[in-house]
Write a structure and sequence with these properties.
157 residues, mainly alpha, elongated
Length: 157
Amino acid sequence: MRFQLTKKEQTIKTRWKYRIARWRVHLARIRAGEHTRLLVIAAVIGILGGLGAVLFRTLIGLVQQAFYQQPFSLEAARALPWYFKILFPAIGGFVVGPLVYFFAREAKGHGVPEVMEAVALRGGVIRPRVAIVKSLASAVCIGSGGSVGREGPIVQI
């Protein structure tokens, strides 16, 4: 079974729907039990989540490179004058505040409680925009020297 898309239909959303439909066809052809299908789906979700975490860590490194000229290095931060140690996290905060306020207000917070709330109250639905803004804002905050952790945004990914 082949799926054909016209050029007009080939938006990003349509391409993803096409890919998901194609994988559903492949999974339906497999004459395996429900446990095998769940295992395959869990493996795919795990791989995608792991790739998201790696991309998030890379984004943090890029922000650190922009601020400190060295990614993932405490030595670069130690060598800075004291006023930069105050200025860089403050600049990061000034970037993060408007980013969250204007693009996804529900991205504020720690991450894990928001995911639990989405699962309990909204059927596990988190808008993609919120996850993207949360990841970007957290990467800027962490990369500029803010005192936050990576775990909350990785949970949302």
